[in-house]
Design goal:
Subcellular location: Endomembrane system; Golgi apparatus
Family: Belongs to the GASK family.
Number of domains: 2
Largest sheet: 5 strands, antiparallel
Structural class: alpha+beta
Organism: Branchiostoma lanceolatum (Common lancelet)
Shape: globular
InterPro entries: FAM198
Number of helices: 11
Pfam family, one: FAM198
Distance between the termini: 43 Å
Oligomer: single chain
């Protein structure tokens, strides 16, 4: 069983930073200033929901998660030529790693199809991704007849629908982030599942230890550009320009962008990413210098000197991980979403919400319903490998953390009189 202690850092690259509270957390709701000592207790609704879902999960001795049993499509691939040999894996399984019949309404058919593919497709081989030593690219042999593709310098253009990104088990909460995105109706993350690899013989010791790891869908249509960390952005954007874009309200209220406005994406897209990042406390998109909270020793921005730029009015505070696609360049795609479970309520990064004047109505309705924890746990059960391999106490605690942040966010939206709008 994989344990996810909340003291462990879960983001892919970095995670936190801050400054004095009075400067870093503008317009913090009064409700957050009160004592939240009771928040360390798991609410009854989360405990009851977990108990109900446990009753529905098959017993471990009848439904063991293994590559040879739960993934009958998985074929062994030889090291020499990457060809498949299916004769060794003939044992049938009565269970699918993705519970399609129990999938909630917030998943589209395309979501479920991709989750099933991620969880069951045969593996051809693994490739490294330049400049990203902590992740690798899985190449699927989905038809059993994969032919090695020509080597190209542009690794981003090699895959169509045959690849996925395999991350460390420490990034497992990427799967939670995917389900959170769908529960809230944001629909901007790429599908993610948990998958374990054993007995393959070609993925290396790093991955073949039996631990479940997050596997993220590879979107070949992602745009990459800009002089600043080109493979981490669709376009180059600094904090000041971002704030001016928010003031321009691109396409909001039916208005067409003026020629001099840098309208990269639809105005409401920034609200989507802002509330999503606030709930997860992912700072390395909109606040990579950690200017909105007090950093800890685990936060890279604290020891690489970036946070010092927060006091420099002339510094270009660059944003990263801002992605869109060729198919729909005005809509964002959220990547690298493993959140920060351990961020305390008195140190939340409200800078992520700076300049946001409208938010998606559907997402806020979920936050105000008081059912976020229940819905999220129900959603996570669809991914059987994730559900069965995670430490239940830690998972329940993290869901409780997200639920508490959701209440804080809903209070903030109400007190700041931020408009609730439907998609456009």
């Amino acid at each position: 069983m994989v344990s996810n202690p909340l003291s462990v850092k879960y983001s892919s690259d970095e995670n936190s930073r801050g400054e004095e509270e009075t400067r870093l957390k503008p317009d913090v709701p009064d409700s957050i200033q009160s004592d939240h000592s009771e928040s360390t207790k798991t609410p009854v609704i989360v405990e009851e929901t977990t108990s109900r879902l446990d009753e529905k999960v098959p017993h471990e001795d009848k439904d063991t998660v293994t590559e040879s049993e739960d993934f009958p499509q998985q074929k062994d691939v030889s090291k020499s030529n990457g060809l498949s040999d299916s004769k060794r894996l003939r044992k049938k399984s009565h269970h699918s790693p993705i519970q399609q019949s129990r999938s909630p309404k917030w998943f589209s058919k395309a979501d479920i199809d991709k989750m099933v593919h991620l969880a069951t497709w045969n593996i051809s081989h693994l490739e490294t991704i330049p400049h990203h030593p902590s992740v690798d690219k899985i190449v699927f042999d989905k038809h059993g007849n994969f032919k090695t593709q020509p080597i190209t310098k542009d690794h981003l253009a090699v895959c169509t629908d045959q690849c996925a990104v395999l991350k460390s088990y420490r990034d497992m909460f990427e799967v939670v982030a995917y389900h959170l995105d769908r529960v809230l109706g944001l629909n901007r993350t790429l599908p993610a599942v948990a998958r374990a690899f054993t007995g393959q013989g070609y993925l290396g010791i790093r991955y073949e230890d039996g631990r479940a790891r997050p596997l993220i869908w590879w979107d070949p249509n992602l745009l990459h550009g800009g002089g600043f960390q080109e493979d981490q952005n669709s376009f180059e954007l600094d904090w000041q320009t971002y704030q001016s874009i928010l003031r321009s309200r691109c396409w909001a209220d039916g208005r067409e962008p003026r020629p001099w406005e840098k309208c990269f994406v639809v105005h409401l897209e920034w609200a989507r990413i802002a509330i999503f990042d606030f709930l997860l406390q992912v700072y390395d998109r909109l606040d990579r210098n950690c200017c909105g909270f007090r950093p800890t020793e685990q936060d890279k921005c604290l020891f690489d000197g970036r946070n010092a730029d927060c006091d420099n009015p002339d510094a270009q505070l660059m944003l990263v991980h801002i992605f869109s696609t060729r198919n729909d360049p005005t809509r964002l795609v959220f990547l690298d979403n493993a959140g920060v479970p351990e961020r305390t309520e008195d140190n939340l990064d409200f800078r992520l919400l700076a300049g946001i004047d409208e938010v998606p109505r559907k997402a806020v309705e979920v936050l105000k319903s008081g059912r976020l924890g229940e819905l999220l746990l129900r959603s996570l059960q669809v991914d059987r490998v994730f559900w069965k391999t995670q430490d239940r106490e830690n998972l329940t605690e993290y869901v409780h953390v997200l639920e508490k942040r959701g209440k804080i966010l809903a209070d903030y939206i109400n007190e700041q009189k931020i408009a609730l709008v439907d998609d456009y």
